[in-house]
Prior knowledge:
- With 62 residues, this protein is α+β, with helices and mostly antiparallel strands.
- Helices cover 16% and strands 35% of the residues.
- Strand 3 (44-49) and strand 4 form a beta hairpin.
- The N and C termini lie far apart (29 Å).
Amino acid sequence: xxxxxxxxxxxxxxxxxxxxxxxxxxxxxxxxxxxxxxxxxxxxxxxxxxxxxxxxxxxxxx
Length: 62
């Protein structure tokens, strides 16, 4: 398994999760392409923790 994806709510909620992630031990991945690292119609943030677990936080369609 590469990563787990979670539905993160609205785009603003995904932005809030991404902003708070470092305070909880997660570092952003693909930050230079945030929030469209998964493609132009896929709003999501990617995170990794110190154990190497990766999470994708996906916004609902608006």
